[in-house]
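Many introductory courses stop at the sequence. We go one step further.
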Amino acid sequence: MLWNIIKISLSAFLSKTIGFLRDIIIANIFGINIETDCFYTAFKLPNMLRKIFAEGAFSYVFIPILSEYKQKYSKKKINELISTVYYILLLILLIITIIGIYISPQIVKLLSPGFIKNKNKFNLTVNILQITFPYIILISLSSYLTSILNIWNIFILPTFIPIILNITIIFFNLFIIKYFNKPIYGLSLSIIIGGILQLIYQKINMKYTPLKIKFNKINLFHPGIKKIFINIFPVIIGMLMYQISQIINSNIISYLQEGTVSWIYYADRLIELPLNIIGTTISNLLLTQLSNSYHKKDSSKFNKIINKYIKITLLLSIPISIFLIFLSKHIVITLFRYGKFNFTDVEMTSKILTTYSLGLTGLIFIKILTPCFYSQYNIKTPIKIAIFNLIITQLMNIFTIKIFKHAGLALSISISSYINSIILYMQIKKKKILDKKYNWKLFIFKILLSSIIISLYLNFLSKSLLENFINLNIKFRLMKLLFTATTSSIIYISILFLLRIKI
């Protein structure tokens, strides 16, 4: 179990490293300006939709159903199911994309009303949105194939999908965008080219399964289709609660000072590294394994799996969040403080990163606890919690944004993530999924004690690191950060060993 997490996490880490190289190149070429604000605002919508049609709602429903069919039905039935779903999904996405491109001006007005007063900014955002909108088709179909591969225990190959997109964007930035009158359009086009290459890559990976997606295998009356549609609508409602929160946040951001969109984007990118490597990796493994255990009616194994993954999450997420909190400015300087990315951008981005880091453990726990419900076809509980969480987050925004400005959005998300996690945990506890024999209080106490010690160490080290850090070249910046990360990890693991926590 842990070995699978390590292998997939390493692949995801490689992907994110190349992603950071991509962001460094973009920051160096474009800096923080109106064009980047327009690009990140426009690209936000395809990313929001992918939460519904790609990694989010659809996979939560589809993976348990496909897992059930794998256990109970023939290869022919499974091929009919995956082929029918593929082409129905393609048709729905085509319709959404055509409508989306047509109503792009209205969408931008909805997402970022603050842009309306600046005609050039508004029009540029609309144009970029129309270029990038078809990406939702490509990434959703790629993610759909990932769900199939995961059920057949193929986890590592799909983790290279983001690498394909990142390399494409890097290639365009270095060699292609200079041929465009507006280089930002070249950057936008690279998203579509990367998405096409991602889908081709996933089609090739399908050869490692016994399944084939073909148009002549479509069966609209397949019983699995009905089951998917019955379950997916409530999940989409839950996901929409999150997206509504994102839309409200986008509205707020559009009225804040210029550069806010880009600062939040870069902070998001940094917090996504541990969130995806730990949270998404474990969530994907967890949903597949829990679904298999549930359909085999092996409650003991189901219990064992969720308990182990909670321990792993606590062991990893707390020290990483502490590392990010104390070294947020050093990390931003190391990765982005080049070219047009100035010191003000460093200050603003690091404040948001620090605030996000406070909620990292909560954000990861949401990803870990939610599959417990979806694997058992319990759709209503996560939805109710999502609606409640939306209300809480936006109520907090009223106060946090007034006090902390752009960092207030991140603070609301961090606080609400813990509220969400606690409610999910309480619901799981009611169902007696967690192992009561294990001394959770003692385990958490040991983790917190270890974390306090490395906090003191990082607090001391960060002050000495900060001196002259911005004047160092990238080689020495990376060496100092690597030394800090290595020594912190050694101290943390040593303390866990002394406290007799098995890793």
